[in-house]
Amino acid sequence: MVQVVAVLDVGGSSIKSGAVGLDDGRSDTIDIGTSLPTLANEPAGIVLDRLAESSQAALDIAGPDAVGLAIAICGPFDIDGGVSHMRGVHKFEDIYGIDLREAIRARTSIGERPIRFARDAESAGTGEALAGAGRGIDRVLTVTVGTGLGTCLTVDARPVPVVGGQGIEHLGMRSTPWGRADDVLSAYGLAKILGIEMTELPRAVDEPANAAAVLDHGNRLGTFLAPVVEELDAQIVVIGGGMSGAFDRFGTALQAALGSTPVRVAALGTAAPLLGAADLTFRPER
Fold first, then answer.
1. Can the peptide bond before residue 114 be classed as cis, meaning omega within 30 degrees of 0?
2. H/E run at residue 103
3. How many domains does the chain have?
4. Which of 18, 62, 117, 271 could form a disulfide with 6 if both were Cys (CB 3.0 to 4.6 A apart)?
5. Buried (b) or exposed (e) across 29-48, using 16+ Cβ within 10 A?
6. How is 210-264 classified by DSSP, letter by letter?
7. Which H helix or E strand runs over 132?
8. Which domain CATH number covers 138?
């Protein structure tokens, strides 16, 4: 039996929409739709309208038989209550405290079907562990390098939220010699080092003049992750998020800093958080 789920992946820079068919026999299907700028620093009304526009696009892709809407979203976020707690993280300041579930319900055709939230890093990590670069590996640390730095440890393709009292989603809040990891090791952090806007970063990482800075970013990320890998007993590190497209420019430095633990670039790209969010919120317990 197949359940069709409308899905969003809400990041600081863009919102991806699509649909996932969850199959009991694990022959899942993923239909990727539009990608729109998030407008994360605009007033609340504009942000909510963009979320609703993307949600409706996902519902249209999924069709009338969609069982509900799954939303992978960055944090801090109350995934049970559907309320943003983002402050001081370079995005979504104006939707702090707003019930996104009800805001989306009021602006779309979803009706009374469920709207369920999942953490974006856990969604990406679950997707990659199920069907991507971490498939078949027991303990996978997936690191999403985007507007923020997301971290997810999966064991047997299920997120492990806490290890030894450490909340895995909060690893980006740790201090580094250069500042808080989320601030300095993310794509946002690299853009700040280069003195450019986030929208200019994809072009800037290709410029030869920035090669040394991009490589150094990989070294810093690897230096930060090396003790984390040991602490979590991770067997592999998977790099996803917007910066994964530039992996060939910083991956060698990252691998050198990590030592013997292998690093792979995410294999599913946009599809990983869509699959992961649907799996975490709508698939019956495995």
1. no
2. helix 100-107
3. 2
4. 62
5. ebbbbebeebbbebebeebb
6. GHHHHHHHHHHHHHHHHHHHHHHT-SEEEEESGGGGGHHHHHHHHHHHHTTS-EE
7. none
8. 3.30.420.40
Number of other CB atoms surrounding residue 63 within 10 Å: 11
| Cα–Cα distance measured from residue 216 to residue 68, given in angstroms and rounded to the nearest whole number | 43
Amino acid letter at 35? S
- Ramachandran assignment for 84, one of left (phi > 0), alpha (psi -120 to 50 degrees), beta (any other): beta
Q: What pTM was estimated for this model as a whole?
A: 0.89
* CA 163/CA 255 separation, integer angstroms: 24
Distance CA 1, CA 80 (A): 27
Pairing of strands 139-145, 149-155: antiparallel
**Cα–Cα distance between 236 and 258 in angstroms, integer?**
10
Sign of the dihedral through C-alpha 175, 83, 18, 27: positive
Could you give the CA distance from residue 72 to residue 275 in angstroms, rounded to a whole number?
10
Shared domain for 155 and 110, answered yes or no, is: no
Per-residue pLDDT tens, the chain, 286 aa: give them: 889 999 999 988 899 999 999 987 677 999 999 899 988 888 999 999 999 999 999 999 999 999 999 999 987 889 999 999 987 666 788 888 999 999 999 999 999 999 999 999 999 999 999 999 999 999 999 999 988 899 999 999 999 999 988 899 889 999 999 999 999 999 999 999 999 998 899 999 999 999 999 999 999 999 999 999 999 999 999 999 889 999 999 999 999 999 999 999 999 999 999 999 999 999 876 5
Closest CA to 154 of 179, 129, 177: 129
State whether 148 and 34 are in the same domain: no
Q: Whole domain around residue 49: which residue ranges?
A: 2-121+271-282
Residue 128 lies in a domain: no
